[in-house]
């Protein structure tokens, strides 16, 4: 076994020597393992599909970091027996009789056991583990079939829904008065009734970001604007706990007089924000740097994103349908009304006159 460990470590050092710029521990030189948030040993599979690691990338430089979207730090592969139908899969893989390396830059090779039925280690798959300071990277082997996945995070429960998926967030339609360039002291708009949720801020179907610099009082269509303290996360698929500042004006025109806890998640090509209602009014979150205070917002899908508009549209459709039904009924009555046949019996006098006229016609001259 020691020869295997030595070979793995020498291989790692050889990689660094051949290309000093390449280090698997550096961002961009490793992958993020999919479905990381559902790989905990306490996460029972309840989803429609089971996690399948049959198609993980393999090879000398195919290293994986395991970080769920709401994890505070990267996960470790489970070193205890994982039960079936946990770790987000049917048949879990876990380390048995092995441990993680303790020295930075050290690579060890371990065997991951497959739990099937009563057999706690029906099959074994080789796994390389590299220690990178505060986290580990994994070079994985492909299982022989699907419904098999590696477990990461002992006693970790299932993650919360991923806000990068559209079904797990709301769209914040950003108007021009939310921008930092809107400076109108007559506007005192407020986010006190904002629903606590994840939001993707968009203006005219284009993503916008929260202001990440100090914003002066009487900006963003309100008296006390709220802006992001610090830079947003640049690492994709990462959720960061951050602070948002409120400019109240106690210590000057632009100041951080109050802080609000928020979360920001990088979804690769855009950002989403976990926002809550403001503690008081008039306070409002700032999004975007360009826009007019009385600028209308157009969004091709906005009518379907606001419940009030959906209700009004549905009501209008019901009224129109009712009118069409009434109009059709009236047309049907007028066109297809049955014609009543009235049999009028001639009077006796009219009958005698008719018979006399008939005698005159047939009488020979």
Describe this structure in words.
With 365 residues, this protein is α/β, with parallel strands linked by helices. Helix content is 17%, strand content 22%. The strands form three sheets. Strands 8, 9, 10, 11, 12, 13, 14 and 15 form an eight-stranded mixed beta sheet that branches. A five-stranded mixed beta sheet has the order 6-5-4-3-7. A two-stranded parallel ribbon has the order 1-2. The model is unreliable at 1-7 and 298-308 (pLDDT under 50).
Summarize this entry quickly.
The protein has 365 residues and is an alpha/beta fold. The chain is built from three helices and 15 strands.
Q: What structural class do the secondary elements suggest?
A: alpha/beta
Major sheet summary line: 8 strands, mixed
| Integer average pLDDT | 84
Count the beta strands: 15
Number of helices: 3
Q: Which band does the percent of strand residues land in?
A: 15-25%
Quote the distance from N terminus to C terminus: 145 Å
Shape: flat
What is the share of helical residues?
10-25%
What Rg, in angstroms, do the CA atoms define? 37 Å
Defining traits:
365 residues; alpha/beta; eight-stranded mixed sheet; 3 helices; flat
């Amino acid at each position: 076994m020691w020869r295997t460990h030595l070979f793995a470590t020498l291989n790692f050092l050889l990689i660094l020597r051949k290309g000093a710029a390449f280090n698997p521990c550096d961002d961009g030189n490793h992958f993020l393992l999919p479905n990381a948030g559902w790989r905990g040993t306490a996460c029972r599979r309840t989803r429609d599909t089971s996690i399948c690691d049959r198609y993980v990338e393999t090879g000398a430089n195919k290293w994986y970091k395991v970080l769920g979207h709401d994890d505070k730090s990267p996960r470790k592969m489970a070193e205890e027996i994982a039960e079936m139908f946990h770790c987000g899969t049917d048949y879990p893989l876990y380390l048995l009789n092995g441990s993680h390396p303790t020295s930075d830059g050290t690579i060890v090779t371990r065997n991951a056991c497959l739990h099937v039925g009563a057999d706690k280690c029906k099959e074994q798959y080789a796994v390389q583990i590299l220690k990178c300071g505060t986290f580990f990277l994994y070079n994985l082997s492909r299982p022989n079939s699907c419904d098999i996945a590696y477990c990461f995070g002992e006693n970790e429960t299932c993650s919360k829904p991923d806000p990068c998926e559209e079904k797990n967030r709301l769209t914040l339609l950003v108007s021009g008065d939310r921008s930092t360039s809107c400076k109108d002291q007559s506007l005192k708009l407020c986010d006190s009734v904002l629903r606590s949720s994840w939001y993707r801020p968009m203006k005219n179907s284009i993503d916008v970001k929260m202001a990440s610099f100090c914003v002066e009082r009487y900006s963003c269509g309100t008296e006390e604007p709220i802006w992001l303290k610090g830079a947003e996360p640049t690492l994709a698929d990462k959720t960061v706990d951050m602070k948002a500042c409120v400019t109240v004006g106690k210590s000057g025109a632009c100041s951080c007089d109050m802080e609000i806890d928020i979360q920001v998640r990088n979804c690769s090509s855009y950002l989403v924000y976990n926002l809550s209602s403001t503690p008081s009014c008039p306070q409002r979150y700032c999004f975007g740097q360009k826009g007019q205070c009385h600028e209308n917002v157009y969004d091709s899908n906005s009518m379907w994103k606001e419940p009030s508009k959906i209700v009004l549209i549905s009501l209008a459709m019901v009224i129109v349908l009712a009118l069409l039904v009434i109009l059709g009924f009236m047309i049907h009555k007028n066109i297809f009304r049955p014609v009543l046949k009235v049999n009028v019996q001639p009077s006796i006098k009219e009958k005698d006159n008719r018979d006399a006229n008939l005698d005159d016609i047939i009488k020979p001259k």
